[in-house]
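The following record pairs a protein chain with its ligand, zinc ion.
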Amino acid sequence: MIQIDKLVRSKRKTLSLIVETDGTLTVRAPLRMKEADIRRFIEVKSNWIKRKQANVQKEAGAPRQYADGETFLYLGKEVPLRLVRDGKPALVIDGVFKLAKAAQPRAESVFKDWYKKQARTVLTERVEFYARKYGFKMERIRISSARTRWGSCSAKKTLSFTWRLVMAPLEVIDYVVVHELCHLKELNHSKTFWAQVESILADHKAYRKWLKQYGTKLNL
Ligand SMILES: [Zn+2]
């Protein structure tokens, strides 16, 4: 049940819910609205309230609780978590993240494993798509856990990508993919290199900016 931290009645006509910056809930209600009606409205909005409260905690830098309503980024979208009684595998995505209650104590590693698996699938698919279309030849794809190094390309033609990248929108993933593929031909950041990136993705500057601005959010 959701706790009302502050109830303010006034001559207003509608009910409003405010999740304050400290995570407490303020409810503004019409003078004569029945307590039971307020409660009912709050229960209907409970998912929204929990999500807001979880996000406030996250902004404040609080460690993750892996609790109901907390959100996790996947392909640029904030996906809420729901704890379910039992589940195999322990974590699945189905509109929401469904995590088995029994797996909650090891939720961090369950999430990491899930992201790594998705990263391998999504990045392999995107690399193959661009390689085929633009005639790039690479040897293999490696998934790393780097925090800010989104991708790299070795002289042996191995492309590495951090699993955190699958938290970003697909356009941003594509930018990193194209960037590393272009390194197969130019192992530097010369004008020729950037011209090639631009010939494939005209908007590449916007995606670089996105990574600079939101890169730290690609994290558990
Ligand atoms: Zn580079």
